[in-house]
């Protein structure tokens, strides 16, 4: 399961060298992640309504090539793990050439909002949402 978004780099995201500041890559990941979560109707508002928060506990970015002002990029978010945590991989490509520019991942865990405790397994509501999504064929992670 994956989702793609196209982003045109705004001026306020670049530094004096006309290259995207490294911290903005996580913002681009977030935009693609929200589109991915929307596909199975479990974005942040639905998470909250179900009684769970899903904070990012780990992130990694590998910067291969710089991204510049007005460049159009395609950001792909790929759901890799979901049984005990959400692990989402990201690829950023130049939208015109298809050249891969960046890759990374984030890891999120479920936290019971009322108890304020981390869950050691993803809550059933996540599996229910994934199973309800008609194109998704669930498989357990090792």
Automatic annotation (TrEMBL):
Assigned keywords, A-Z: Hydrolase
Domain of life: Bacteria
SUPFAM superfamilies reported in the protein's UniProt record: Thioesterase/thiol ester dehydrase-isomerase (SSF54637)
Presence of the UniProt keyword Hydrolase in the record: yes
KW Disulfide bond (keyword) present: no
Sample GO molecular function, one term: fatty acyl-CoA hydrolase activity
Family: Belongs to the 4-hydroxybenzoyl-CoA thioesterase family.
PANTHER family, per database record: 4-HYDROXYBENZOYL-COA THIOESTERASE FAMILY MEMBER (PTHR31793), NOVEL THIOESTERASE SUPERFAMILY DOMAIN AND SAPOSIN A-TYPE DOMAIN CONTAINING PROTEIN (0610012H03RIK) (PTHR31793:SF27)
Protein name per its UniProtKB record: 4-hydroxybenzoyl-CoA thioesterase
Species for this entry: Acinetobacter pittii (strain PHEA-2)
């Amino acid at each position: 399961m994956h989702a793609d978004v196209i982003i045109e780099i705004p001026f306020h995201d670049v530094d004096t060298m006309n290259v995207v500041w490294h911290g903005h890559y996580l913002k681009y990941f977030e935009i693609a992640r929200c589109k991915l979560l929307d596909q199975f109707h479990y974005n942040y508002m639905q998470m909250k309504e179900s009684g769970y928060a899903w904070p990012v506990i780990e992130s990694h970015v590998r910067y291969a090539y710089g991204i510049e002002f007005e460049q159009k990029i395609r950001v792909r978010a790929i759901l890799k793990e979901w049984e005990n945590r959400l692990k989402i991989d990201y690829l950023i490509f130049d939208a015109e050439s298809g050249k891969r520019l960046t890759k990374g991942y984030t890891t999120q865990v479920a936290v019971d909002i009322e108890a304020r405790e981390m869950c050691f397994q993803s809550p059933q509501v996540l599996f229910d949402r994934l199973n309800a999504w008609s194109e998704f064929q669930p498989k357990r992670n090792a």
